[in-house]
């Protein structure tokens, strides 16, 4: 460990056998560890588990993997500054991470200018791989457009025609609302959009937001708030009967990071994307969950899966490339097939988007705790445009 202040720097090299003779392969990891701890601390645990597994098995290319962590505080400027320091001072071989679309785009811009690989694990903005795509950037999670398509398929089955939206006023929120509107309107031309609420991220005024939605008199609501903002919105909406007699489609709400804090406030029947961790009974997920619970004495969150899978894809790309050279890693990531706790997926060569999917279901309660019911896993490949279309949406330099 180089420094002890997590907010500044933390270096982790877990499970590295003493027999390693070569220097470690260093990954610079940037994330919002203090600002969004509900997601990012489980994410970090997922990274630690993956590092332990990989290094115990002999590392990659005869070298241990090492992760150098930085906390961006949910600030794009800090994320870009950390990226530069990791590359120039820490001499990392590649960059990974980020949570918000803003921080992800900031690090992506730096990676493109400095010609270093960036594996964007969590940021959901479609611009990251399409309109502002870069040949140096690959994204793991299902994007806003992908999840919007999944949710719109369920929303289209509802009788509601008057819809209002609530989302944080930054790239993630505006992109999610735009994608959901486009997807639902294509499936249901009879839908009208009667109101929008754009609270500042982390500063949602629950009373004003609920009143604004109610004033529009919608028959259904699309919500993209998360974290403490979601909890405030749900509590105030419950107290004012905002959701009574109205359908709600809510992005990310089924993720345990955001569902667990709702407890007895959890609404019944919201259509959500999420992670029903306690109910998935595939061999890949059982193996991951058993190892995670044994190591941390805690249940996994979606962040745990994302962090774990990010590091395993990096290891797979390094093995395929046989090198840490950026150009060889780009070639390796294009078309890279990988395994995850959700099953096999790959990174598309055309637009650098992963086909990792998401779970769609409904919210419910059991013993005063929120959970997902009636869920199913949707493969990311089923909600993506064709690879040629994805490629053509990218800047010319990103297609090389």
Residues in β-strands, percent: 15-25%
Large-scale geometry: globular
Radius of gyration, taken over Cα atoms and rounded to an integer in Å: 21 Å
Provide the spatial order of strands within the biggest beta sheet.
Answer: 8-7-9-10-11-14-15
**Helical content class:** 25-40%
What string gives the helices and strands in order?
A: EEHEHEHEEHEHEHEHEHEHHHEEEEH
Please tell me the overall pLDDT.
94
Poorly predicted ranges (pLDDT <50, ≥5 residues)? 1-16
What is the structural class?
A: alpha/beta
Termini gap: 38 Å
Tell me about the largest β-sheet.
Answer: 7 strands, mixed
Number of strands: 15
Total helices: the number is 12
Tags for this entry?
alpha/beta; 12 helices; six-stranded mixed β-sheet; 15 strands; 400 residues
Short structural summary:
This protein has 400 residues and is an alpha/beta fold. It has 12 helices and 15 strands. The longest helix has 20 residues, at 37-56.
Plain-language structure description:
The chain is of the alpha/beta class and 400 residues long. 38% of the residues lie in helices and 20% in strands. The strands form 3 sheets. Strands 8-7-9-10-11-14-15 form a 7-stranded mixed sheet, with helices on both faces. Strands 1-3-2-4-5-6 form a 6-stranded mixed sheet, sandwiched between helices. Helix 1 runs parallel beside helix 10 and helix 6 crosses helix 7. It is globular. The relative contact order is 0.13. The N terminus is likely disordered.
């Amino acid at each position: 460990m180089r420094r002890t202040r997590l907010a500044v720097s933390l270096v982790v090299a877990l499970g590295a056998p003493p027999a390693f003779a070569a220097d470690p392969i260093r990954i610079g990891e940037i994330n919002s560890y203090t600002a969004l701890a509900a997601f990012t601390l489980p994410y970090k645990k997922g990274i630690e588990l993956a590092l332990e597994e990989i290094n115990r098995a002999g590392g990659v290319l005869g070298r241990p993997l090492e992760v150098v962590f930085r906390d961006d505080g949910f600030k794009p400027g800090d994320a870009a500054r950390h990226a530069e320091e990791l590359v120039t001072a820490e001499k990392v071989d590649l960059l990974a991470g980020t949570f918000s679309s803003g921080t992800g785009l900031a690090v992506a811009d730096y990676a493109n200018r400095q010609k270093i690989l960036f594996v964007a694990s969590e940021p959901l903005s479609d611009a990251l791989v399409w309109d502002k795509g870069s040949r140096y950037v690959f994204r793991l999670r299902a994007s806003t457009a992908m999840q919007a398509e999944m949710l719109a398929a369920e929303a289209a089955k509802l009788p509601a025609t008057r819809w209002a939206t609530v989302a944080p006023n930054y790239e993630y929120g505006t992109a999610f609302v735009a994608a959901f509107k486009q997807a639902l309107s294509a499936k249901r031309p009879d839908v009208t959009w009667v109101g929008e609420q754009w609270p500042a991220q982390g500063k949602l005024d629950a009373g004003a937001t609920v009143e604004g939605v109610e004033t529009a008199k919608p028959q259904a609501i699309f919500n993209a708030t998360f974290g403490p903002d979601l909890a405030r919105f749900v509590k105030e909406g419950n107290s004012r009967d905002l959701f009574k007699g109205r359908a709600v489609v809510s992005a990310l709400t089924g993720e345990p990071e955001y569902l667990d804090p709702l407890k007895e406030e959890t609404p019944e029947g919201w259509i959500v994307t999420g992670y029903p961790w306690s109910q998935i009974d595939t061999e890949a997920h059982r193996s991951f969950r058993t190892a995670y619970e044994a190591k941390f004495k805690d249940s996994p969150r979606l962040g745990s899966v994302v962090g774990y899978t990010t590091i395993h894809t990096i290891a797979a790309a390094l093995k395929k490339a046989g090198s840490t050279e950026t150009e060889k890693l780009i070639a390796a990531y294009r078309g890279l097939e990988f395994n995850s706790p959700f099953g096999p997926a790959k990174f598309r060569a055309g637009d650098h988007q992963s086909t990792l999917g998401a779970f769609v279901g409904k919210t419910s309660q059991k013993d005063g705790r929120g959970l997902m019911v009636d869920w199913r896993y949707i493969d990311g490949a089923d909600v993506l445009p064709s690879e040629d279309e994805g490629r053509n949406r990218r800047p010319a330099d990103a297609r090389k």
